[in-house]
Design goal:
The complex is a heterodimer of chains A (109) and B (115). By secondary structure, chain A is mainly β. Chain A has no helices and ten strands. Chain B starts with a strand and ends with a strand.
């Protein structure tokens, strides 16, 4: 299996830009997906296929990809964006099928 | 789209439990379905996927041989039979729609394995 590596935490002030990275060898060949999870709630997909924004997700959210790293960018961060963010991809190595990163806690200062 | 899980509870180590997920608001028989779990205070872990006609099924290594996923398209239902449960299986279990990624999630059902 392969791993997806995310920073454990990212902190930004309101109005600033938050960038959360996710790295893994297979991201060069497979799409990444991003989920937002607020306390006590189920995850919600915010970005699919590296860069596509899910319906109803604010314009300030975007995704990008370069080589083996994908990035979730949140422009003009608001207090309501404070959440855990997980990247996810497909693992065709046979051991897991789908894999998540460990998650990044976004704190809005 | 609505996914409602049930069947969670407290079970002793070595015990069994069967989870259910009832779907509504979409054509259940045309979507792959998954179970994803989250241990208390931990991250997300994919558990299993079942295709539309149950002709392909995959499991995470951590549950292979102990868990069995199934579906009943006539009744818009997804199931997870969990056997030989251990403390590491304690988690909130979500059913989630989709193949390649998880477009919609239920609110989860909590499984606690403890003596």
């Amino acid at each position: 299996s392969y791993e997806l590596t995310q920073p454990p935490s990212v902190s930004v002030s309101p109005g600033q830009t938050a960038r959360i990275t996710c790295s893994g060898d297979t991201l060069a060949k497979k799409y990444a997906y991003w989920y937002q999870q607020k306390p006590g709630q189920a995850p919600v997909v915010v970005i699919y296929k590296d860069t596509e924004k899910s319906s109803g997700i604010p314009e300030r959210f975007s995704g990008s990809s370069s080589g083996t790293t994908v990035t979730l960018t949140i422009n003009e961060v608001q207090a309501e964006d404070e959440a855990d963010y997980y990247c996810q991809s497909v693992d065709n190595s046979g051991s897991s099928h789908y894999v998540f990163g460990a998650g990044t806690k976004l704190t809005v200062l | 789209v609505k996914l409602v899980e049930s069947g969670g509870g407290l079970v002793k180590p070595g015990g069994s439990l069967r989870l259910s997920c009832v779907a509504s608001g979409f054509n259940f028989s045309t979507y792959g379905m998954n179970w994803v779990r989250q241990a208390p205070g931990k991250g997300l872990e994919w558990v299993s996927i079942i295709s539309t006609r149950s002709d392909y099924i995959y499991y995470a290594d951590s549950v292979k041989g102990r868990f069995t996923v199934s579906r009943d398209n006539a009744n818009n239902s997804l199931f997870l039979q969990m056997n030989s449960l251990g403390a590491d299986d304690t988690a909130l279990y979500y059913c989630a729609r989709g193949e390649n990624y998880f477009e919609y999630w239920g609110q989860g059902t909590l499984v606690t394995v403890s003596s």
